Amino acid sequence: MTFRLACGDVMPGCTAHFEHADRDQLMTQVVAHAAADHGITTITPEIAEAVGARIQHT
Ligand SMILES: [Zn+2]
To answer: Could you tell me the superkingdom of the organism this chain comes from (predicted)?
Structure first.
């Protein structure tokens, strides 16, 4: 199974895409990107839920 997230679905205008076989590792990548590129250093439950709801898996 591959998990994918388009950051632009959460942060309109962002073109970053993430892909990983492990959902937790994908979230780790997204969290690092959010901190580096969006200045989001605190992942609230609301943010985690918004991101989680947009993760696609195939
Ligand atoms: Zn982004």
So the answer is: Bacteria
- Residue 48's pLDDT is what? 93
> Sign of the C-alpha dihedral, residues 20, 3, 53, 11?
positive
Number of domains the chain contains: 1
Answer yes or no: are the C-beta atoms of 2 and 58 closer than 8 Å: yes
User: How many Å lie between the centroid of ligand 1 and the Cα of residue 9?
Assistant: 9
Cα separation, 55 vs 1, in Å, equals: 12
User: In angstroms, what is the span from residue 17 Cα to ligand 1's centroid?
Assistant: 8
Whole-structure pTM value: 0.89
